[in-house]
Amino acid sequence: MNRWFRLQPRLLSLSKPQVPIVSLFKNLLGPHGRSNIRVTNILSVRVGLSSNRNSVYGFRTFCTDKDLSAKKCVPCNSKDMRPMTEQSANELITKVVGWDLVKEDGKLKLSRSWKVKSFTKGLELFKHVADVAEAEGHHPDLHLVGWNNVKIEIWTHAVGGLTENDFILAAKINGLDLHHLLRKKPAA
Ligand SMILES: C[C@H](O)[C@H](O)[C@H]1CNC2=NC(N)=NC(=O)C2=N1
């Protein structure tokens, strides 16, 4: 059964809807009457549902790169900050396409590699990444090895592991248009 039909009875059972049901459904459906990914935002903002990102009325919602990249890194100098568990990291890693979870010296890190067209294109890539990092106040480790192998590692130095900041930064790096800097053909 189409999921909107399954959702509908629960929405209709809201005792005090804050928006007319008709306009709610207009927003939930795309221009061709199809659902779109904005459903999570619309439901939580318009209907004031729970802020739990993963479950709206027991309805599994989406968490994409876009969710993370819409967030902002927080300063890492808080005493309350703790590294996330490996289990949480394994769940979040699926939201940042192209990034791997690695463990170095017992510390979890995010890692992504690219092959660039030239050494200077590698530096250019770093400049784009640096601009994002500066805007976020969260900084990756940058490696350029063997003239065209770029590797970026992200972790939260202050806690010796991963925090949501790292995933936010990775998602924002994924949002950069870097294709003109990258080598097209796979290395021999
Ligand atoms: C106050 C400020 O957030 C911190 O000093 C930041 C700066 N950038 C940082 N970047 C990373 N990756 N880890 C940190 O612990 C860190 N600390």
UniProtKB/TrEMBL annotation:
GO molecular function: 4-alpha-hydroxytetrahydrobiopterin dehydratase activity
Catalytic activity: (4aS,6R)-4a-hydroxy-L-erythro-5,6,7,8-tetrahydrobiopterin = (6R)-L-erythro-6,7-dihydrobiopterin + H2O
UniProt EC number: 4.2.1.96
Superkingdom to which the source organism belongs: Eukaryota
Swiss-Prot/TrEMBL GO biological process terms: tetrahydrobiopterin biosynthetic process
Swiss-Prot/TrEMBL keywords: Lyase
Keyword Zinc-finger: no
Gene Ontology terms: cellular component: mitochondrion
Annotated Pfam families: Pterin_4a
Enzyme class: lyase
Coiled-coil boundaries: none
Record has Repeat as a keyword: no
PANTHER family, sorted: PTERIN-4-ALPHA-CARBINOLAMINE DEHYDRATASE
Family the entry assigns: Belongs to the pterin-4-alpha-carbinolamine dehydratase family.
Protein name: 4a-hydroxytetrahydrobiopterin dehydratase
